[in-house]
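Progress report, Aim 2. The chain analyzed during this reporting quarter is listed below.
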Amino acid sequence: MKGLEHGGSDECPLCQHFGPSCVGCPIAAYTSWLHCENTPHEEYVVAAEGSEEEKEAILAEIKFLKEVMAKLVRTKAESGL
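Predicted C-alpha cells for the chain:
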C-alpha cells in the first residue's frame, strides 16, 4: 500500500497533523470513521501507480475533499465563527 504507516498516510498533511488517533481530523469528523476508511483514499492506496484506477481515485478524492470543505465552511458559517 502506498504511504500507509501506523494507520495514517505518510503523504497526508492531515494524518501528519492529527496522528493515528484521528482526533480532530475533519475527514474523521465528516465520515465518523478513523484512518480514512470508507473514503476514496482507500481506492487510491490499492491502485497501481500510473493506472487509470489511480487517476480515477485521485479525482474521486478531490471531489470528496471539496465536499468535506464545503461542510466545514457551512458549519462554521452556521455557528457564527
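Residues 52-79 form the longest helix (28 residues). Residues 4-79 form one domain. These observations will guide the mutagenesis work planned for the next reporting period.
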